[in-house]
Each structure stands twice: as structure tokens, then as C-alpha cells.
Amino acid sequence: MTRRDLLLGTASCFAGMAWTLEAVAASNDAFEIVRTEAEWRRLLTPVQYAVLREKETEQAGSSRLVREKRRGTFHCAGCDLPVYSSRAKFDSGTGWPSFWAALEGAVGTREDNSLFMRRTEVHCRRCGGHLGHIFDDGPPPTGLRHCINGIALKFVRSPV
Questions:
Q1: Contact 63, 150 (CB under 8 A)
Q2: Alpha-carbon span 86 to 34, nearest angstrom
Q3: Beta strands 98-99; 89-90: pairing state
Q4: Which residues of 44-64 are buried (b: 16+ CB within 10 A; e: fewer)?
Q5: Cβ contacts of residue 152 below 8 Å, gap of 6+?
Q6: Cα–Cα dist 14/37, whole Å
Q7: Residues forming the active site
Q8: Distance of CA 142 to the CA centre of its chain
Q9: How do beta strands 130-135 and 89-90 pair?
Q10: DSSP string computed for 114-156
């Protein structure tokens, strides 16, 4: 065994351990609403299930919520928790509903290293449904852009 083989083997072991620890941490998240895969599939459309439960991304520009301008609240499509206010919504030009902040205590985050990138995933704090990602290229006052899948949300209009 050469020194190079030893180093490559050790690096592979650590990479595998890191992936395993991340998977275990994600599966051990404690959420208020826990359902079986079959229950989620009954409650959600196939596209909602793919986004909320399997962390897929909807096609840019496919959600009518990108153009939603009325006053109201955006709720998690998985559990109906209010997660974003229309007051924090802005047009990012990305093709996904974008917000500069979530409602206080409504979402959780975790590091997402998929697709060879380091990003911050945002999920519903009550059911764990994947909502989207947070980037640091948003407007004041936070400078953040919560880039959210419209299919993961439902809009509830505020009374006039």
C-alpha cells in the first residue's frame, strides 16, 4: 500500500462518514407533524410530494405565486403553517416566489451540500417540508433571498 492509497482511502472514509452523519441528522429532526410516506402521498399532489418531501425543485416561472401581489400570508402546503408574509415578498427575477424574511419562528434551516454546492435549505419548522433555499443576494433590510418553490406554498388573502 502506498502513501497515496492510504490518503485516498482515509479521505473516502471521512467523506462517507460525513454523508452518513448528515443523513442521520436529517432523519432525526423532531417535527410537530410526522406522517408516513403513504400519508404524505395521500395528502399532497405528486408534484407537491416531490418538492416538500423529496427536496425537488419546481420549474422556474411555473408557479402563479411568482406574480401574486395581493396582501396576505403564504402557508406551508404540507401543514398549513403560515411561513411568509406578502410584506416581505419581492420580485427577484428568478422565476420563484422570493422573500427577504420568513415569519418569526416559522421555518428552520440546514446546510445543503447537494449538487456540489454549499447552500442553506429552508424548511417548514412544523412538518419539515422542503420549501427552497436562502441566498445572500436579497434586498434590505436583511440582504437575504428566500427562494421558495411556489408549489410548497398556498396563499391566504388578508381581508381588505
A1: yes
A2: 28
A3: antiparallel
A4: beeebbbbbbebeebeeeebe
A5: 48, 51, 52, 76, 77, 78, 129, 130, 131, 132
A6: 31
A7: 147
A8: 18
A9: unpaired
A10: GGG--EEEEEETTT--EEEEEES---TTT--EEEE-GGGEEEE
Torsion of CA 30, 31, 36, 40, to 10 degrees: -150
Q: Nearest Cα to 132, choosing from 98, 93, 90?
A: 98
Tens of pLDDT, residue by residue over 85-136, are 999 999 999 999 999 999 999 999 998 887 677 889 999 999 999 999 999 9
Residue 86's nearest CA partner among 20, 142, 156, 140 is 156
Residue 48 sits at the vertex; the CA angle it makes with 149 and 119, to the nearest 5 degrees, is: 40
Q: What predicted TM-score, i.e. pTM, was given to this entire model? A: 0.80
Distance CA 101, CA 43 (A): 27
Cβ 124 vs Cβ 78: under 8 Å: yes
Q: Residue 5: pLDDT above 60?
A: no
